[in-house]
């Protein structure tokens, strides 16, 4: 930069050298020689250009030399639109982008049901692709939450985008919402804010099975992954089809946390297997199951264990 500032001086010197116009031929020759000298000096100072405050910053000397000596590189084919971004995306940005795209694609199919999933959908509820097909419809979530004692502590073990946690919180329960996917936790937190219950829910990013030994609550709500929308393509859904662990493992983990458990399961679940879960306790837990509907559509089976069973 110091060199660059020197340039206007060079320009000024040249200007003063030129000012007294020569009158004779020898003076003319001296003038030509002076101009040549100045030109040579300028060449030696190549890279120093007069910089007006508004000009773009000078190109570094080394780069300018390269430009001057090398033949111009063949220009690459114009990038297609998708290739245009110059800065490479960070992996998490790419993931988020892909997740948004997937959510939009899935939303098309489930769009008509958006208000049955979240009645406040139009206020800005957000979902990812899984949320669209696996969130518990709001009316069902509200009916399940109605079994919980107000002011009790509820653990929502597979919280997803927050549908169940929100309904428990709306009933006045304190909720610990455990979810393994941090992006879903962000969506759930956002949705809880829309419902005005964010302060009632403690969101935890983590694996329920790892956290379970350290947790205590009055009630555990379990809506473990059913295995995606293909769950109903089998005539009988058995508990070993639940992911990531079978229904017995999920139930046993929950039993150590609370004496009351609510499980939301596929409508084709083997109900005798579900009832057997209550016998894992000694004495056996009270048990009740109900078919859960939304607008006369059979959505799933809710199983109640312990005091929440009627
Ligand atoms: P499916 O569509 O197969 O029913 P869900 O989307 O209902 O699956 O799964 C419920 C949620 O449980 C998902 O948001 C998923 O990220 C979450 N989840 C899966 N495994 C665990 C785990 N070990 N601990 C906590 N959350 C989990």
TrEMBL record:
Organism: Triticum aestivum (Wheat)
A single cellular component GO annotation: Cajal body
Family stated for the protein in its record: Belongs to the methyltransferase superfamily. Trimethylguanosine synthase family.
InterPro entries to which the protein is assigned, alphabetical: RNA_cap_Gua-N2-MeTrfase, SAM-dependent_MTases_sf
Name of the protein described by the UniProt record: Trimethylguanosine synthase
Subunit details: May form homooligomers. Interacts with CREBBP/CBP, EED/WAIT1, EP300/P300, NCOA6/PRIP, PPARBP/PBP and SMN.
Composition skew (Basic and acidic residues), residue ranges: 80-98
Subcellular location field: Cytoplasm; Nucleus, Cajal body; Nucleus, Nucleolus
Name of a matching Pfam family: Methyltransf_15
Superkingdom of the organism of origin: Eukaryota
Region called Disordered, residue ranges: 1-24, 40-99
Keywords carried by this UniProt record: Cytoplasm, Methyltransferase, Nucleus, Phosphoprotein, S-adenosyl-L-methionine, Transcription, Transcription regulation, Transferase
Example of a GO MF term: RNA cap trimethylguanosine synthase activity
Gene Ontology terms: biological process: 7-methylguanosine cap hypermethylation
Protease keyword on record: no
Recorded catalytic activity of this chain's protein: a 5'-end (N(7)-methyl 5'-triphosphoguanosine)-ribonucleoside in snRNA + S-adenosyl-L-methionine = a 5'-end (N(2),N(7)-dimethyl 5'-triphosphoguanosine)-ribonucleoside in snRNA + S-adenosyl-L-homocysteine + H(+); a 5'-end (N(7)-methyl 5'-triphosphoguanosine)-ribonucleoside in snoRNA + S-adenosyl-L-methionine = a 5'-end (N(2),N(7)-dimethyl 5'-triphosphoguanosine)-ribonucleoside in snoRNA + S-adenosyl-L-homocysteine + H(+); a 5'-end (N(2),N(7)-dimethyl 5'-triphosphoguanosine)-ribonucleoside in snoRNA + S-adenosyl-L-methionine = a 5'-end (N(2),N(2),N(7)-trimethyl 5'-triphosphoguanosine)-ribonucleoside in snoRNA + S-adenosyl-L-homocysteine + H(+); a 5'-end (N(2),N(7)-dimethyl 5'-triphosphoguanosine)-ribonucleoside in snRNA + S-adenosyl-L-methionine = a 5'-end (N(2),N(2),N(7)-trimethyl 5'-triphosphoguanosine)-ribonucleoside in snRNA + S-adenosyl-L-homocysteine + H(+)
